[in-house]
Each structure stands twice: as C-alpha cells, then as structure tokens.
Amino acid sequence: MDEAQTGGCLCGKVRFVTTGPLREVIFCHCSQCRRQSGLYFAATSVAAEALDLSGAEHITWFAASDFARRGFCATCGTILFWKPNAEARYAILAGSFDRPECLHPGYHICTAGRPEFYRIDDGLPQYAGDGPDVATAAG
Questions:
Q1: What is d(CA 58, CA 56) in angstroms, rounded to the nearest whole number?
Q2: pLDDT digits 0-9 by tens, 15-46
Q3: Cα separations (Å) of 130 from 16, 99, 111?
Q4: What's the per-residue H, E or C state across the chain?
Q5: Number of neighbours of residue 59 by Cβ within 10 angstroms
Q6: What is the pTM of this model?
Q7: What is d(CA 65, CA 39) in angstroms, rounded to the nearest whole number?
Q8: How far apart are CA 26 and CA 84, in angstroms?
C-alpha cells in the first residue's frame, strides 16, 4: 500500500507517517519479541526514507542484539519499531497504526520459539526460523 498512513504511541508523544509501500504483516514468535511484547510481534516494514517521525526525542532505543535495536516510547512504553542495523528500513508494530485495517497478513516466522500454550491456526505460512527475505537475530 503506497498511500500515506499514520500512527503513534499510546500517549501521543511519538507520531509517524509512512509514505512508501508497506510490507505485509509478519508475525514473529522469537523469544526476544515474546519477552518484549508479552506474546509475539506483528509488524509491517517500510523503507527508512518513507518514514517521517515526530517526537523522536521520546523514543528509547534498546539494542537487544548486535543485529537490531527496538524502539519504544519512553513515556508510555508503547513498542513501536524494530530496526535492523544493516538495513535502511524500519519494522513498525501493526497495532501502532491509526488505521491498522490498511495492513494485510503475510506469514509467521521463528515459530520454533513459539510457546506451546497457543496454536497458530490462521492458515498463513509458517517458518521455524527466518522467513523469505526476512532476517532476524534469532534466524
């Protein structure tokens, strides 16, 4: 989807506008995503030049690995971004969009790390590690 999409954190101190095409939503079940979010990440992705941030001074970046860092609002704690160090793109959490219905599901990755208390039965493709064209620290 190429039209502009908006979103932000719970308290409103961090806002963003995307103007480029958004990747389908990838659901990551790795231990890092589980520990940060409480279950799993559901995130799209956009090229860095297609993301306009306001309130960036309210974002705290945490380097969970040598591979990527995770960005969240320092005021309300909303998880917003996952940024690979070697790529000019940002993964943006699907729930942070004002109109998340603009997004479309893609597939599940790192399912080998999925806890047994829930099932994945939505019919989307599943990958034990990284998915096609997606590299993670858990890979």
A1: 5
A2: 999 998 999 999 999 999 999 999 999 999 99
A3: 27, 27, 9
A4: CCCCEEEECCCCCCEEEECCCCCCEEEECCHHHHHHHCCCEEEEEEEHHHEEEECHHHEEEECCCCCEEEEEECCCCCEEEEEECCCCEEEEEHHHECCHHHCCEEEEECHHHCCCCCCCCCCCCECCCCCCCCCCCCC
A5: 18
A6: 0.91
A7: 19
A8: 15
